[in-house]
Design brief:
The protein is α+β, with helices and mostly antiparallel strands. Helix content is 48%, strand content 9%. The protein has a single domain (7-402), classed as Cytochrome P450 (Cytochrome p450, Orthogonal Bundle). It contains 17 helices and eleven strands. It is globular.
């Protein structure tokens, strides 16, 4: 059998970065997995369709453990393979993943997250006070609210000093959308150096924060995080703990602006519709376009298509949640839809630990915006908005609004 052709995503859709959904739908119509070239020039395999994506996310032959990957395939190169920043649970399979998640999961229980609501509300109110001050009635919603809200929350939760948060924004931007290998390696080194100093300080002088708790957490069997595992866990929480929410808020507001009938429905009945609206935002244009990469440890057949061993595999969460086999009229944004069953936060072992926090922040931010900014609307050509590059995160760098 001849090898599958490599399909260029940008050739399939010149507007792929802004609107990948028609390309994914066309691929899905042909089968559940395809050998593709990304807009950045990387060749990999991509899984589409709700059923196939759910199956891929729990397939043990698709590893997340970098220790099982041939060094030649290592996405961070040989120089970055041993970084303590890569020891976190997102880069481990069971049983290692299970052990690491257990040591931090109790800090993210729904009850504990619900207890953060008053503080999240106060942070949101302060950010909106600053945005509304001066009477300009215009702002970049990403810079004014969508970014600083979750960054402030996760940094306060972990105990990161306010003076260091701008550095984390630069580091996070590079990690989720790398510009080049050398800069990515430098970012990992800088973050690891910083986190070593911070964890040492928390070990010497514990405070009432999550990092201090993690430093001293011991489970009932006496297990605890090693020094490198602690750095890896904090690295993951800082990056994943805000990037998802930034794009949940940004993408959700873009969807409301593009569908004014839905915006008016939500304004008229926030108590009855807000929870469902957040789920529909996640389904319709979620913050994560594809799940973090997996690698085949052996030849795998998806549908009727063989995928070789050692291949990079991306699972298209964005397409799974636009699959008409799962959601009727999936390209319609409808905040009254029952959007349960979407996989915007993943599925299975690696389901997002921070999903309750992202939902809480999204609900509070969207409600406060609609209450305090009558007439809020987009203040730019939607087609000209600058997008975050790459296939991992789906969102815009800026979102100009007026009210």
């Amino acid at each position: 059998m001849s090898p599958a052709p490599v399909l260029d995503l940008k050739e399939l859709g010149p507007d792929f970065v802004r609107d990948p959904y028609p390309v994914y739908a066309a691929l899905r119509a042909e089968g559940p997995v395809h050998h593709v070239r990304t807009p950045e020039g990387e060749e990999l395999w991509i899984v589409v369709g709700h059923e196939a994506c759910r199956a891929a996310l729990v397939d043990p032959r698709l590893t997340r453990d970098l220790r099982k990957v041939d060094p030649a395939m290592h996405p961070f190169g040989k120089d970055g393979a041993d970084s303590p920043a890569l020891t976190h649970m997102l880069l481990r399979d069971a049983p290692d993943h299970t052990r690491l998640r257990k040591l931090v999961a109790r800090e993210f229980s729904p009850r504990r997250i619900a207890g953060l609501a008053p503080r999240v509300q106060r942070i949101t109110d302060a950010l909106l006070d600053a945005m509304l001050d001066g009477g300009a009635r215009r702002a970049d919603l990403i810079a004014a609210l969508a970014y600083p809200l979750p960054m402030t929350v996760i940094c306060e939760l972990l105990g990161v000093p306010a003076a260091d948060r701008d550095a984390f924004r630069a580091w996070s931007n590079e990690v989720v959308a790398p510009t080049e290998q050398g800069r990515l390696h430098a970012t990992y080194r800088d973050m690891v150096d910083y986190l070593r100093r911070l964890t040492a300080a928390k070990r010497e002088r514990p405070e009432e924060d999550l990092l201090s708790a993690l430093v001293h957490t011991v489970d009932e069997g006496g297990d605890r995080l090693s020094g490198d595992e602690l750095i890896g866990m904090v690295f993951l929480l800082l990056i994943a703990g805000h990037e998802t929410t930034v794009n949940l808020i940004g993408n959700g507001l873009r969807a409301l602006f593009a569908h004014p009938d839905q915006l008016e429905l939500l304004r008229a009945d926030p108590d009855g519709l807000l929870d469902g609206a957040i789920e529909e935002m996640l389904r319709y244009d979620g913050p994560v376009e594809t799940a973090t990469p997996r690698w085949t440890t052996e030849p795998v057949t998806v549908g009727d298509s063989p995928v070789p061993a050692g291949a990079v595999v991306l699972v298209a969460l964005a397409d799974a949640d636009r699959d008409p086999a799962r959601f009727a009229a999936p390209d319609r944004f409808d905040i009254r839809r029952d959007a349960r069953g979407h996989i915007a936060f993943g599925h299975g072992l690696h389901y997002c630990l921070g999903a309750p926090l992202a939902r809480l922040e999204g609900r509070i931010a969207v409600r406060a915006l609609l209450e305090r900014c009558p007439g809020l609307t987009l203040d730019a050509d939607e087609a000209a908005l600058p997008w975050v590059p790459g296939l991992l995160m789906r969102g815009v760098r800026t979102l100009p609004v007026r009210w």
